[in-house]
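Budget justification, computational time. The allocation requested in the original proposal was used primarily to generate structure tokens for proteins on the priority list. As evidence of use, we reproduce two of the resulting records. The first is shown immediately below.
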Amino acid sequence: MPGGGPRRPAGRPGGRAVPPVVLALRRLPSPRLTGLGAGLFAAASMFVIGCLDRLLFDGSPLVYGLLFLPVSALTALWVREADLVTAPIGVPIAFAVGVVPIAGGPGGLGGRIMAVVTTLAVHAGWLYGGTLVAGLITSVRKVRQMGRRQRTAAAPRATQR
């Protein structure tokens, strides 16, 4: 039956079909950033998003917050396994960097600082949400890493018996 039903990859135990979503995700780039690189990626991305938000949406906190969530997820996915702890730390800093363009405030440095602090306080829900996303993703990655290490350490012991 040509073209009917899901295709089963050859040589795979159990013959389970791979969903198209998984195949599409595997084709995405998978850079491995250092802790500093991940922080810089997040900060630069959020600053650009903040500037574009100010320009296109007049500094909408909703748009900024919604775009902060995928940046948090990408930061947590792209950081190296050795630097997993840095993603949930760098993401809130990136949020604060990106808030500067959308905060507004009266003229002068003091007014700008107060506007940034007020914006951070009022929109802390987005900040906590993005940090939670990054924390959950890095926690899952760390648990998977520990499981892989445990399996590879147990494999030589099993062959020695």
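The second record produced under the same allocation is shown here.
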Amino acid sequence: MIKLDNFLFQLFIFWYICGVILLSFNLMPSWLEWANAFFLILAGTLASIFFIKRFNWKSGILISFIIFFLSFLIEFIGSSYNIIFGKYYYTNQFAPTLFDVPLAIGFAWLLVMGTSHVLAMKIFPKGGILYAVTGSFIAVTIDLIIDPVAYKLKEYWIWEEPGFYYNIPLSNFIGWFLVALLLHLLILFFIKIEKTPYSNSLWEKRMITLFILLVSMFVLLGFIGRLWIACIVTILLSCFILLLTLRGKTYD
């Protein structure tokens, strides 16, 4: 019998392929809009599974809960009071919502943190502040393509103030970096107190795969929508990140 974690990963791959086809050719029917939120929830769940396997059930669930809660709280504060990320609001494409913030956003941050953690730790296996800063830089790299596509092409959320990058304010990317830095320092804290080596290379590879798939999907949508600068910048930075990981050590 197939394990639940393997089933969820395979389900994600299937859902990913369907999503790429539907979004690329603008075939998404209105009754299937919930698929956007389900995609993020499924991806975030995979990141939670990674944290559980990286640490243990208790610590992995606790880390996942803290990432979800803090990121959701920060998004609520940001969208409600126009601080941290800038002035913006969410549309109704990621229902269900709580306090006008999609619940799927917390899962999205889990995905970002799971993937950026693995990549950053591959580059700086000993951890430390360089790991946290690198992980935050990787998180911002992901957002460099997600935000233009989600805002300009899909209108998943709307910015209400101008910015230098596709009318997205600089404060958004600074906010992303600072939030990711806070969460990476949290993960680093658990690494120090747990003192347990990583021993599941399969899920390490799966997190890297999720990073590649996520970036590739949004870059594809960006090319279709003629967001040339966002696509080129993201490709160059992502390739640079992946090249650095090849020079790093594994968790073995």
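A brief technical remark on that second record: The radius of gyration is 17 Å.
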